[in-house]
Amino acid sequence: MRPSLTGPAVTRLDARALYFVSHDGPVNTNSFQKHGLLTHGGHQYAVWYTASREAVVARRRPGAATWPAVTLPHRLKADDSHNVICMGVSPADGRLHLNLDSHSDGFHRVTSVAGLLSDPSGTAWGPSAFGAVRTTLDGLPLTDRFTCPQFLTTPEGRLQLGYRAGVSGNGRNARAEYGGSRWTAPGEWSGATGTYTTPHGTGTARSMYLHGLDYDRRARLHALFTRRERDPAVLARRGGLTNHDTGYVYSDDRGRTWHDGTGTKAGTTGGTGRVRVTDAGLTVDPLGPDHCLMNQESQCVDSAGSPHPIISHLPVRLGPATTGHPAARTARARAHHVRKTASGAWLKTEIPVPLRSSQRTRLVLDRHDNAYAVLPHGRITAASAASKYTDWALLSDGAGLYAFGEVVVDETRSAADGVLPFMYQERSAGTIPSPLHVADFAPPA
Which of 258, 274, 252, 269 is nearest to 187 (CA)? Predict the structure, then answer.
């Protein structure tokens, strides 16, 4: 079955959503939000900030034209596009969890009443369905340098929260867990220290930026990542991105023990051994820091349990960056599809569509394992599993959407009913609010 698309069917969330550009993107549609758009129990949920900076959550039956919205008791505190809203589901008690407005500082959390997601018809949708804003996990503090939240649900139905403790270029990945009655914090699992050397200089501190955290059908947890060095001395010239290499680890015990792609133990959560830059066997696609490699891009896992990341950078054949990274990426960057084969080898394919943007791409696999890469501005390219992902072609050029930058994909709905929905915001100027939409595309059944 070759990839194809029908649609889109577009619905509007907000005629005047908050708009400003920070770190080359708006706060409402950063593609690394997991999840800014989420489907569970027969309803689809969306989160964003309004023109008055209020946090909002809305829901609908998938495909419905309207989105009844609830305003939450929180206003965005800074014009920083990192301060996204992410959602998670705890199946044990049917709660919706929201983490919002944090970038290397404290976090804010809002949780629904029990049963909102498991019994939506029996629980009133409105402000009374959500609790107060909290800055701990039910009294459990995490870190005062909290960033990059990602919610995911374990095969047993426990809710996990991945996050970074520390700052860009000097941070560690950690996780917390909720089983339906209380939160626990198992701790950190990646290390920031170690020596990384290029022909231009040396770095001694860094952050591991995850492309995602995803369980496969066999309950293996997959994490692909790139690393960002703190010290710009590793660059050939200033103004580039210090990101380098694509790495991979997995866990078969729900994120307690981590292994590299060869099966060698690489670290433990909360233990003395951390996954570090000096560990052998982690890198699956080596790339130096002079090619504007993007962090926090995207990953999926196919039906056979093989991981697939999307990464984007300046193709090596074009040489290193000669300007600052936003301009260099806009002019020359391409997205690349990487996948692990059944033999254990990693294959990389350049997607032959210019990015024309400094921003990220999101990857989705359909029920036939065909790959769809949603590029900046809502453009969609695809490749078939039958071709071994060699026949990438543009399926939608985003015409008529007027989408600015990245989009937020609802990977949960794609898994549930095969529809490919994404949230996008229309381009504006300065701080003039603009419309926020959800577009539904339909891959082959």
Answer: 269
Considering only CA atoms, which of 303, 207, 299, 297 is closest in space to residue 250?
A: 299
**3-state SS class at 390:** coil
User: pLDDT digit string (tens) for 138-192?
Assistant: 999 899 999 999 999 999 999 999 999 999 999 999 999 999 999 999 999 999 9
Full DSSP string of 114-177: TTTTTSGGGS--SGGGB---BSSBTTB---SSEEEEEEEE-TTS-EEEEEEEEETTEEEEEEEE
Q: Where are the alpha helices (DSSP H) in 16-112?
A: none
Do residues 166 and 274 touch, judged by C-beta distance below 8 A?
no
CB-based burial, 361-374: b 16+ in 10 Å, e otherwise: bbbbbbebbbbbbb
CB 230 within 8 A of CB 206: yes
Residues 99/124, Cβ–Cβ less than 8 Å:
no
51 near 18, Cβ under 8 Å?
yes
Burial of 375 (0-12, 13-18, 19+ CB in 10 A): buried
CA distance 103 to 145: 7
d(CA 177, CA 194): 28
How far, in Å, CA of 175 to CA of 179, rounded? 14
What does DSSP say about strands 6-17 and 298-301: parallel, antiparallel, or unpaired?
Answer: unpaired
Asked, as a colleague might, if the bond just before 313 is cis with ω within 30 of 0, I would say no
Given a contact cutoff of 8 angstroms between Cβ atoms, the answer to whether 140 and 184 are in contact is yes
Residue 403: exposure state from Cβ atoms within 10 A (0-12, 13-18, ≥19):
buried
Task: Give pLDDT tens digits for 282-338.
Answer: 999 999 999 999 999 999 999 999 999 999 999 999 888 888 899 999 999 999 999
This prediction has a pTM of 0.96
* Whole-number Å distance between alpha carbons of 20 and 193: 35
